[in-house]
Amino acid sequence: MPSDKELFNQHISQQFNDELEEIRTQLLEMGGLVEKQINDAIVALIEGDAKLAQQVRDKDDAINQMELDIDQECLRILARRQPAASDLRLVVSISKIIVDLERIGDEASKIAKRALDLVEEGQAPRGYVECRHIGHHVRRMVQEALDAFARMDTEQAFSVAREDKAVDQEYKTAMREMVTFMMEDPRSIGRVLNILWVLRSLERVGDHARNVAEHVIYLVKGTDVRHIGLKRMEAEVKKDSAAEE
Predict the structure, then answer these.
(1) Using CA atoms, how far apart are residues 207 and 104, in angstroms rounded to an integer?
(2) Within 10 A of 25 (CB to CB), how many other CB atoms are there?
(3) CA pair distance 228, 45, nearest whole angstrom
(4) In a 10 Å sphere around its CB, with 0-12 CB exposed, 13-18 middle and 19+ buried, how is residue 221 labelled?
(5) Is 37 within 8 Å of 105 (Cβ atoms)?
(6) How many CB atoms are closer than 10 A to CB 3?
(7) How far is CA 1 from CA 5, 150, 187, in A?
(8) How far, in Å, CA of 114 to CA of 106, rounded?
(9) How many CB atoms lie within 10 A of CB 181?
């Protein structure tokens, strides 16, 4: 019996194989750019680098265009090839993952905007350590979610989903600390609010990384694991593959 991964590489038409491989490659390229955007946005914030922050803002259009191009190609494949089973899941999953990647790019652009505001207003007195820590955490989640897609690794995808819960807790703790600091020093409210928005964007990046992981599990297992708890998700991951086609 072929493995899950082999199921996605068996077509009579070499051209169809090439088309599917092309959209997979394009998705991973888009993911690589999005991952860099998050990293650059955090560096721009921490180092007060206005030039780098503006570069992140400028590259957002390129990410938006990549989403449109890949989505168009997915629609073309659906119309022309009418794929079924694992092929259909692959195309559908890619069309959904690129939406989450585009939104991660949006969050990176928002962080860069806050970095520019802080360059103009002066650094916030608190919050950079928290932004660096959570930023590193969610960037790693995005990287691992993309690795899980490339390898069709549901165990790794589940690990990403589990990490989202830890990020949510880190975000809540950081928010409480920032609110307490603003109450103690009202003069800092304006600048610390920028940090709060950055923390919110990073928490959203974690949510989108989890979404990508859920799409990977659907792709490989054929089971929709959105909106279910981690225990049920783990049980689905450990089941024998549903992709008996």
Answers:
(1) 9
(2) 11
(3) 35
(4) buried
(5) yes
(6) 11
(7) 11, 21, 67
(8) 13
(9) 17
Contact 80, 72 (CB under 8 A): no
Residues with Cβ within 8 Å of residue 118, at least 6 apart in sequence: 45, 48, 124, 191, 194
CA distance 18 to 169: 43
- Which pLDDT band holds residue 82 (cuts at 50, 70, 90)? confident
Structure tokens, 115: 């970095």
Cα atoms found within 13 Å of the Cα of residue 218, Cβ hemisphere only: 21
- At 177-205, the pLDDT tens digits run 999 999 998 888 999 999 999 999 999 99
Distance CA 57, CA 236 (A): 39
CA distance between the termini of the chain:
10
What percent of the residues of the chain are helix, what percent strand, and what percent coil, each to the nearest 5?
85, 0, 15
Closest CA to 122 of 196, 53, 199, 48: 48
Closest CA to 88 of 219, 223, 226, 211: 219
The model carries a pTM of: 0.91
Query: Alpha-carbon torsion 189, 40, 68, 29, what sign?
Result: negative
Query: Is the four-CA dihedral 147, 12, 245, 74 of positive or negative sign?
Result: positive
User: Contact at 8 Å (CB) between 218 and 225?
Assistant: yes
Give the residue, 94 or 223, on which the prediction is more confident. Answer: 94
Q: What is the dihedral of CA 203, 207, 209, 213, to 10 degrees?
A: 150
